[in-house]
């Protein structure tokens, strides 16, 4: 989740090699870039504020889950046995699923576009709509 530049990147399992299963960038770095981009979009209408809130909530929710994945993974590496590691592995997996798929916070059977429920996959599916809606709202002001 942190990428090669992350605070915890390195030889966590003591085998002499720093292993990175990802693209060296990390989810948290991508989220930081996305947040910076969202922060540059003008918010001058109620519609833009609505869509901006969706972006900000989703980014914060995904960041929280990514940090939970990292925290649980570090706990796995601090254990001495598979039995001791098991609860942390399970919690890391659950956090990763929430990060990717989102969470139905209000238990209505749907992972909504708002209320901090979107995960990476939901945000990816909704991104074109959210981007267009923000800029269409801006264009309508002209």
Can you offer a commentary on this structure?
This protein is mainly alpha-helical. It contains four helices and no strands. α1 packs antiparallel against α2. The model has no long low-confidence stretch (mean pLDDT 81).
What's the arrangement of secondary structure elements?
Blueprint: H1 27-40, H2 46-77, H3 82-101, H4 120-140
Largest sheet: none
| Poorly predicted parts | none
Q: Estimate percent helicity.
A: 55-70%
Question: How many helices?
Answer: 4
Radius of gyration (CA) equals 18 Å
- State the oligomer: single chain
Strand content: under 5%
Q: Spell out the helices and strands N to C.
A: HHHH
Tell me the number of strands.
0
Question: What would the principal axes of the Cα set say about the shape?
Answer: elongated
First and last CA, distance: 41 Å
Overall pLDDT level: 81
Which class best fits the helix and strand makeup? mainly alpha
Quick description:
With 142 residues, this protein is an all-alpha fold. The protein is built from 4 helices and no strands.
Give structural attributes.
about 140 residues; mainly alpha; about 60% helix; elongated
């Amino acid at each position: 989740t942190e990428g090669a530049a992350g605070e915890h990147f390195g030889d966590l399992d003591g085998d002499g090699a720093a292993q990175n299963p990802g693209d060296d960038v990390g989810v948290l770095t991508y989220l930081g870039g996305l947040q910076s981009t969202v922060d540059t979009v003008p918010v001058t209408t109620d519609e833009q504020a609505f869509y901006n809130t969706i972006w900000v909530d989703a980014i914060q929710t995904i960041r929280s889950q990514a940090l939970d994945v990292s925290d649980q993974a570090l706990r796995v590496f601090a254990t001495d046995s598979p039995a001791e590691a098991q609860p942390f592995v399970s919690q890391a997996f659950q956090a990763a699923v929430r990060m990717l798929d989102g969470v139905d916070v209000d238990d209505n059977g749907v992972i909504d576009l708002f209320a901090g429920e979107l995960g990476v996959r939901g945000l990816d599916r909704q991104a074109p709509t959210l981007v267009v809606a923000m800029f269409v709202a801006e264009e309508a002001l002209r």
